[in-house]
Design a protein that fits this description.
Elements lengths: L1 H17 L3 H8 L14 H8 L1 H26 L9 H15 L12 H11 L1 H18 L2 H25 L12 H17 L1 H9 L9
Helix pairs in contact: 1-4, 1-5, 3-4, 4-5, 4-6, 5-6, 5-9, 6-7, 7-8, 8-9
Length: about 220
């Protein structure tokens, strides 16, 4: 029972950390409700477009840490407990954090699209996949200047690389464990994360298909 309550505390704590509305609070500090301007999103991209690089980078860093910190802490806690599957605490914290960011209680469940927070989660839970996701993001962004397309591509890259590491680990028992722990739950989590990001970008996908999506232009 105590262990079950511990997992409930992990999920609740991760949700609350993830639900911290960084972009909204930055907007309020600057005198606007960010939800009423630009794309209406409280994420780093909309903040950067409207309030400049300083605030955009601030939102990105805090949202990134929101994703990384709960996973990092719960993985330290996991070392004192035998888990089956091993990724269970980390994946629980990851999904709860991402849900908190996307559907924060404080903003009537209208949050961000989860890219910055997902990046932090990937560093904490899937470090071996991080360079692949970041590389695909930058490649698509530099080629197209579409933040949404770059984010969608990075989201799809995540489960593909997690599956790749899973099969590599099965073929090679000496595969270094620090790259990332691969099991069926981590694969499911990567798919769930990608699915949530894609779902949150449905409007962007429609605009990409119709050619009306806004590019991120240099200023």
């Amino acid at each position: 029972m105590n262990f079950f309550l511990s997992l409930c505390a992990v999920a609740l704590g991760a949700y609350l950390v993830g639900s911290f509305p960084t972009g909204y609070l930055v907007g309020r500090y600057c005198g606007i409700d960010i939800r009423n301007y630009g794309s209406g999103n409280i994420g780093a991209t909309n903040v950067m477009r409207l309030l400049g690089k300083k605030w955009g980078y601030t939102v990105f860093i805090i949202d990134f840490l929101k994703g990384w910190l709960p996973v990092f802490l719960v993985m330290l806690w996991k070392n004192n407990h035998e888990m089956i599957p091993p990724s269970a605490p980390g994946t629980l914290a990851a999904l709860a954090t991402l849900i908190g960011h996307s559907f924060p209680l404080w903003l009537h469940f209208r949050g961000g699209k989860g890219i910055s927070t997902s990046a932090g989660i990937i560093v904490g839970l899937f470090p071996g996949s991080f360079l692949f996701c970041v590389g695909s993001w930058f490649l698509l962004f530099l080629l197209t200047r579409y933040v949404s397309l770059a984010s969608i591509t990075a989201a799809i890259t995540l489960p593909m690389t997690v599956l790749l590491f899973y099969f590599l680990k099965k073929e090679n028992t000496s595969w270094p464990s620090y790259l990332q722990e691969e099991d069926w739950l981590s694969i499911f989590t990567s798919l769930a994360m990608a699915g949530l990001v894609l779902w949150r970008h449905l409007e962007n996908i429609k605009r990409l298909l119709t050619g009306t999506e806004q590019r991120f232009e240099k200023k």
